[in-house]
């Protein structure tokens, strides 16, 4: 979305460059910063129901279940999911993820995600994988490595949302469960703690709602 201040400045810049006006009248006016938009996180119940509803035995079902489980278990970006290779994940409860700027981080993989990956690798991937996929963990129906766009389509179809909603939910649910902000920052791969702090607003809303619902004098 283009901010109004930025759009207006561009308009007058164009007029100035064309010689229609001597100077940009708003050139020195600072553009207001965009407001931070709070992440949209699904409730733990909603997310559990959505993931567990993907329970078919077809290769595509096994793959999609593994994508959802791993994205939520590790809080991965869609680009990180798409870049994963089998040896990085197979049989491991900790995986090393290459994030933004080539920075590696280690994230735990929960038991449900491990089970989903094991089943996908044993029963699903062999039925889809083609020669072009190499060691790619997630492959499409044509046998090649899935790209971020394809993974977004899977999450949209299965969850009615976007892969980043799983990442938001991962962070929010950790904080709701008592995780400290520094740990969440490390797990998400944020360079700045300030980036992670946006989730505290979401967590505080949960705490207020819980207090209001359960405390006799709320």
Folded structure, characterized:
This protein has 218 residues and is mainly alpha-helical. Helix content is 54%, strand content 5%. It has a two-stranded antiparallel sheet. A hairpin with a 5-residue loop joins strand 1 and strand 2. Helix 3 packs antiparallel against helix 6 and helix 3 crosses helix 8. The N terminus is likely disordered.
N→C terminal distance: 40 Å
Question: Average pLDDT value?
Answer: 82
Name the shape in a single word: globular
Q: Any idea what the radius of gyration is?
A: 22 Å
Total count of strands: 2
Helix content: 40-55%
**Sequence of secondary-structure elements:** HHHHHEEHHHHHH
Q: Characterize the main sheet.
A: 2 strands, antiparallel
Share of β-strand residues: under 5%
Uncertain parts:
1-6
Please describe the topology of this protein.
Layout: H1 4-17, H2 44-52, H3 59-74, H4 78-83, H5 86-89, E1 94-98, E2 104-108, H6 111-124, H7 148-159, H8 163-176, H9 181-188, H10 193-196, H11 198-214
Structure summarized in a few sentences:
It is built from eleven helices and two strands, in the order H-H-H-H-H-E-E-H-H-H-H-H-H. With 218 residues, it is mainly alpha-helical.
